[in-house]
């Protein structure tokens, strides 16, 4: 990830799992993405990454049961302010993408989206969640570490624009563990 995974999105569709999560004085709605969210999601993607996914890549995620593609909306009517993409294969998950609109960062939105992915992973019986992150992406690394991810590897020259190593991070999920930490 932006680092985020260079893996292309799987074709298909996502979980229908709306959830409301208050944080401070700005409650957030986290819900499954729809076709109508694609323009806003792609605008955030382009603002966030030097090597962005295409709008079509996001469209291909809709309605794939192997995929969580969720967006965060603020209740102050500013619309979609972030999104997360994760996919699930048997008992493992990968957080493939997470981003927050530049003007909405630092308010807990990224943490809420990552918590959503961890909650869904736990519900699906996932035991280990993986992700990749650019070595230099201090904000994302701090976010992941705040949610219990640990570095387990390094992929040399994994990213382009600019070329950079990816750190591979993992969080194990116990079957009887508590809900994802709330920062
Ligand atoms: C990484 C990103 C998703 C974080 O989203 P966010 O909504 O700003 O993060 P939050 O406000 O939820 O912060 C959660 C935690 O992350 C860490 N964090 C977030 N931004 C940080 C920063 N600029 N510097 C250091 N730590 C930071 C902190 O530990 C923070 O916890 P705290 O607020 O209790 O200190 C956001 O910066 C972003 O969209 N970046 C561009 C895209 C990207 O790099 N995505 C990740 C790889 S795919």
Give the terminus-to-terminus CA distance: 21 Å
Query: What is the level-2 CATH architecture name of one domain?
Result: 3-Layer(aba) Sandwich
Q: Give me the secondary-structure category.
A: alpha+beta
Summed over residues and divided by their number, the pLDDT gives a mean of: 86
Largest sheet: 8 strands, mixed
Within CATH, the superfamily of one domain carries the name Gcn5-related N-acetyltransferase (GNAT)
CATH class of one domain: Alpha Beta
Helical amount among residues, as a percent range? 10-25%
Q: Strands of the largest sheet, in order across it? A: 1-2-3-4-5-6-8-7
How many strand segments? 8
Q: Any idea what the radius of gyration is?
A: 15 Å
CATH topology of one domain: Aminopeptidase
Structural account:
There is one protein chain. This protein is of the alpha+beta class. It has a domain at 19-125: Aminopeptidase (3-Layer(aba) Sandwich), CATH 3.40.630.30. 22% of the residues lie in helices and 34% in strands. It has four helices and eight strands, in the order ββααβββαβαββ. The protein has helices at residues 38-48, 55-59, 109-123, 138-146, and strands at residues 19-21, 28-32, 67-74, 79-89, 92-100, 128-134, 150-159, 164-172. It has an eight-stranded mixed β-sheet with strand order 1-2-3-4-5-6-8-7. The longest helix is centred in the middle third of the chain and has 15 residues, at 109-123. The protein is globular, with a radius of gyration of 15 Å. The two termini are 21 Å apart. It binds coenzyme A. Coenzyme A (COA) binds at residues 1-4, 48, 97-100, 105-111, 133, 137-140, 142-143, 146, 183. The site of coenzyme A has 25 residues, from strand 5, helix 3 and helix 4.
């Amino acid at each position: 990830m932006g680092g985020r995974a260079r893996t292309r999105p799987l074709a298909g569709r996502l979980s229908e799992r709306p959830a409301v999560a208050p944080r401070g004085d700005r409650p957030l709605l986290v819900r499954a993405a729809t076709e109508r969210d694609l323009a806003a999601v792609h605008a955030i993607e382009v603002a966030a990454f030097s090597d962005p996914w295409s709008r079509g890549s996001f469209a291909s995620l809709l309605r794939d049961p192997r995929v969580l593609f969720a967006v965060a909306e603020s209740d102050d009517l500013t619309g979609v302010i972030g999104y997360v993409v994760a996919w699930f294969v048997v008992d493992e998950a990968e957080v493939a993408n997470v981003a927050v609109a530049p003007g909405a960062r630092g308010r807990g939105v990224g943490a809420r989206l990552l918590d959503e992915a961890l909650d869904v992973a736990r519900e699906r019986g996932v035991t280990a969640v993986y992700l990749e992150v650019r070595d230099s992406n201090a904000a994302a690394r701090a976010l992941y570490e705040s949610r219990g991810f640990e570095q387990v590897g390094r992929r040399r020259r994994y990213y382009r624009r600019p070329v950079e190593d990816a750190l591979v991070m993992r969080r194990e999920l116990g079957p009887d563990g508590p809900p994802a930490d709330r920062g």
